[in-house]
Amino acid sequence: MNAHKPEPLTLSLSVNGQTYDLQVPARKLLSDVLREDLGLTGTHVGCEHGVCGACTVLIDGRPARACLTFAAQMEGHDITTIEAVGRPDALSVLQQALHEEHGLQCGFCTPGIVMTFEHYLRENPAPTADEVRDVLSGNLCRCTGYQNIVAAVLKAAARMRGEAA
Amino acid sequence: MSDAFTEIGRALPRKEDRRLVTGRGRYLDDLAFPGALHVSFVRSPHAHARILGIDSVEAAAMPGVMGVFTGRDLDQWTTRLRLAPPIEGLQPTELTTLPIDKVRFHGDPVACVVATDRYLAEDAAECVVVDYEQIPAVTSIEEAFAPDAVLVDETLSSNMVSHQSLCVGDPAARRAEAHRVVSARFALHRHTHAPLETRGCVADWDDGRAHLNMHIGNQVPHPLRSQLAARLGLSESQVTVMSPDVGGAFGQKIALYREELAVAALSRHLRHPLRWREDRMENLMAAAHAREYECRTRAAVSETGKILGLELEIDEDFGGYCFYPANYMARVIALIMTGPYRIQDYAYEVRVALTNKCGAGPMRAPMAVTSWVMEGTIDAIARELGLDPVEVRRINALGPGDLPYTMPTGEVLEDVTPKETLETAVAAIDVAAFRERQARARSEGRYLGLGLCTVIESTTYGSEFYKSAGIPGSGHEAAWVRIEPSGAVNASVGLMGTGQGYESPLAQAVAEGLGVRSEDVTVHMGNTDIAPYGMGSRGGRGATAGGGTLYLCALKARERVLAIAASMLDLNDAGGLRMRAGHIERMIGEDWQKTGLALTDIARRAYLDPLALPEGVAPGLDFSHSYDPPAMTYSNSTHACEVEVDPQTGAISIDRYIVAEDCGTVLNPIVVRGQQQGAIAMGLSGALLEQVIYDGAGQNLSATLADYLVASPNELPEFEILHHHTPNQRTPAGIKGMAEGGVMGAIGVIANAVSDALAPHGMTIERLPLTPQSICALLQEAATSPAKRTQL
Amino acid sequence: MKPAQFTYHRPASLAEALALLRTHGSSAKSLAGGQSLGPMLNMRLARPDHLVDLNDLIELDSVRVSDDMVEIGALTRHHRVANAPELRRSLPLLSAAAASIGHYAIRQRGTIGGSLAHADPAAQLPLIAVTLGASLVIAGLQGTRNVVAADFLQSIMTVDLRDGELITALRFPLPVGGFWAFEHFSRRHGDFAIVSVALNFAQDADGKIDALRLGLGGVDTVPLRLPEIEARAQGRPADEDTIRELAAATASAIAPEDSAQVPASYRRRLAETLVIRAFQSALNREEGA
């Protein structure tokens, strides 16, 4: 144990285009700050060792594990969470495809998958099924067996390219 | 499937998706409880040790810490769990809320820290000093049953906590007269459920009302409430269980676990809301494990491969504690072992061992090993007799003429189609063409294999089953349907979904029974103050017990609605009326014609103008129903897969995977297909990758998701699913249930396929998981000692 | 699973970072991408009093290709190493290996310097650094020093990095030949390999193997380069017999230890197989090109 107790840090965080001023301990994980301090509970915590991918958010537009990031590091960076991607009555193209293809069951891993592919499909708008599987390997799903998720991502990609699917 | 249905069978995408894909689901940890305190458990670093003392002085004085509590503290505020059902051969067990005198596995909780946040709670948990005296750990079935074994539970006479046997017919005589007696062995390894959302709860004691609000993702809210009330000395009126969205369970969220009871007791003691969210290491180490079996079969067979008699031995490693009666899982395996085959002379012996590992519980397909054992035995018969494994299946499989078929254990199979699914799968995968490819590949040093596995899946356990199996419990389910004054349709049932996607298919069952659109029905689950007392979600009972009860309840509601409609239309009776999509229609001539009357009109009459209701009809539109399904319902399937084994690395690739499945009437084909895929994936992931690993000292070596390997999309094939739909004649709407058979079939089919691939080496898979290193070890062994023909 | 307390520092310059590391000595740990350190902090396997965040040192996120070498800043993320066109051209072996690290999101954050400093014996980038003879540029308050990767990596998670020092860059000599391959085997996609093999060579005018560099990961406490096998290959035709002989010699040259789940014999077998496959894939690629 450390004998001293460091003071909480005063931070200004930019999340989903909004600026939040808050005080948090240096060691507090970004995943916990998003969920507990900002009430953005769509980012899920599945393992806290970077394997499951449920907590994936975008940092400056790129996917990252919120559980392997300290909120203190994020001053000056833009964070995007699932709350900024679609709403129940206005799903994103990818979310709509996941719904249609039954690409989720319990839904706990789903926000991490959506965040990963919202970025990836911009980088690679026409992925192959193997490429989708490679990227999806960073997001564990215990329910679906992945087949429908892959189908949904391919469908979303086709729609985003303006192809009928 | 019956064409008569209009709502059942519709391919409706799931209602819950919209909130879940947008991160608006509400899982336990998403619920805000201002001022709630956080709990962290101190866990044993040893597999087996006496607790000599616990010093929490330093921890209790740390910043934010509200208290540190031990097993001794909790023993004052909770009663112990005593499991002593009157089952022959089952030793009674009792356990305290937290261990007091000794720990029984690596990860056993010994103290509970309550603090203002989880970070501070973990800081303090590190500073609780427990004085342990280590005891030798029992880490295998063999060690547990050794004559001088250390006792895991010192109140018992031995580590054999359960021992049952049965002998039907005369298997010894069949063996004596048999052309050949074929022996086979099957060792399934320890798994764990690993739901993406770990366990957790918020206990919110309302001191003014003396009432416990327990928020917890759980499959069986009402039975959990009964347990909580009993263990806390409260009445069932003083406890409400509320299950929010749940991030997967697979059987792990049924029992009332010690941690959850401790949190509830401490919320009451401290008069404060308390929250606990298990971390992943705790989940993998200490939540619940499953499936560790060693099975042996002896089949007496004729020259043609006909099975004359079967003998089965099952040993199970149950871990350190009994959260379920120790015969619970293994006995079902023994009861349904003969499954799709015509066998009458049968004997089993089931022994269950306590060891210094995490306690075992049911995991999606608690009987998962069954199909591997039976189908592996069939393959062993074919191998030893030099017969075609498809022919051995054909000669023994139950066909339409055999049904209903009473298994030697008394279990009755009806409306199942094992022979038909076998033929469908065999035709689809084209066994003959595969054998040609296989022969060509072998000549090039490549090893292809084809596996088959026919599954009889026990889905819905009625009360009669529990009674005859000697397991305490009820198999009934309860539901209510309420048409509100506006015409809105609400319904509820005692199930609780944990990701399956109940909201659409159960709405379809209600909509079908009532005569409205599924989109207009809302099903409420998970709150014990709202839902009727039902037995919850487990096994494959959701559709038959839950959907069936809702359907019957909705039929009751429809009868009343149509009676009111008849009176409003000045008809003598409702005989010529029906409701479709919420509109009353009347048969005129040969046609159904709209009457202009809708459910909204009936509801308005029932609630707002009840004096105008026909004689004897009570106001309101509120219905309840309970239903006890048949002793057991069964679905069936045949899995077929092709693999290639890389002899250099031991890697296994699955080239094709087919399943022909018959689960009767399907409420919602989208959801059913998802369950089939998910179950197969879980079975393959378990057979190929997952393994809870303990070393010889009982240290758990697989407590992260980097060590406990859940399959990624790259290890799983696409699944081709072929459908049969044979309705069960004895259940509402012909529903059978499903969602576990995929696990059973996947384990058996992959093991059989790899054995087929390794056949040129004379090697058979007798032990899972199929790690590449174990495959290479087998090949090495085959190369060095050709006489040794089976896996150690 | 929450990290223990620490004091967080976010230096704006290399000089400031070095000063902080010097001041706090062994009680400080530097944080780059956090993809390995993060889990260790969360599991409290690492518990520094001071965490020095290097992510603002953007000058260390750099790729410079010159006539005789490639210098890659320590803070360069795996995703960039895998995809930067100049790296895919000049160091395709490195790019291919980086593309196989962990998962997509991990590669967005993880850094090349962090991977070397963490020194997992199964990791990709230390293996490639050793195989290609890279050196590390290490800065301290007293100035910088260069260490070759094979000397830098001392044992499992043990490296030649003193208190107060930071890796600032890796320098890769340009490979001599156009034949290269990276082969790795893991049970699950994206996991650390059980065994991995990297190789690079040229062919002389007669098609004989020239200047082979052969490295193996996962067979020892550090990635190994095998000079005796490399020497044996010199001037030999790149045919099946040679490849098989070299692979068998590789399997005999290494001395992996039995671990809880993986017997040494299996690692040996994998090493032999992956060496063969690496040669084949190097030759096939060249044919296809």
UniProtKB/TrEMBL annotation, chain A:
Secretion signal, residue range per the UniProt entry: none
Metal-binding keyword on record: yes
Span of domain 2Fe-2S ferredoxin-type: 9-85
Pfam families: Fer2, Fer2_2
Coiled coil: none
Superkingdom, taxonomy of origin: Bacteria
InterPro entries in the record: 2Fe-2S-bd (IPR002888), 2Fe-2S-bd_dom_sf (IPR036884), 2Fe-2S_ferredoxin-like_sf (IPR036010), 2Fe-2S_ferredoxin-type (IPR001041), 2Fe2S_fd_BS (IPR006058), Beta-grasp_dom_sf (IPR012675), Diverse_Oxidoreductases (IPR051452)
PANTHER family: OXIDOREDUCTASE WITH IRON-SULFUR SUBUNIT
Protein name: 4-hydroxybenzoyl-CoA reductase subunit gamma
Origin species: Thioclava marina
From TrEMBL, chain B:
Domain of life: Bacteria
Protein name, UniProt field: Xanthine dehydrogenase
Aldehyde oxidase/xanthine dehydrogenase a/b hammerhead domain mapped to chain residues: 22-136
Keyword Oxidoreductase annotated: yes
Coiled coil: none
Cross-referenced InterPro entries: Ald_Oxase/Xan_DH_a/b, Ald_Oxase/Xan_DH_a/b_sf, Ald_Oxase/xanthine_DH-like, AldOxase/xan_DH_MoCoBD1, AldOxase/xan_DH_MoCoBD2, AldOxase/xan_DH_Mopterin-bd_sf
Keyword terms, alphabetized: Molybdenum, Oxidoreductase
Source organism of this protein record: Thioclava marina
TrEMBL record, chain C:
Superkingdom per UniProt: Bacteria
Alphabetical list of InterPro entries matching this protein: CO_DH_flav_C, CO_DH_flav_C_dom_sf, Diverse_Substr_Oxidored, FAD-bd_PCMH, FAD-bd_PCMH-like_sf, FAD-bd_PCMH_sub1, FAD-bd_PCMH_sub2, Mopterin_DH_FAD-bd
FAD-binding PCMH-type domain span: 1-177
SUPFAM superfamilies on file: CO dehydrogenase flavoprotein C-terminal domain-like (SSF55447), FAD-binding/transporter-associated domain-like (SSF56176)
Keywords: FAD, Flavoprotein, Oxidoreductase
PANTHER family for this protein: XANTHINE DEHYDROGENASE SUBUNIT C-RELATED
Protein's name according to its UniProt entry: FAD-binding PCMH-type domain-containing protein
UniProt organism field: Thioclava marina
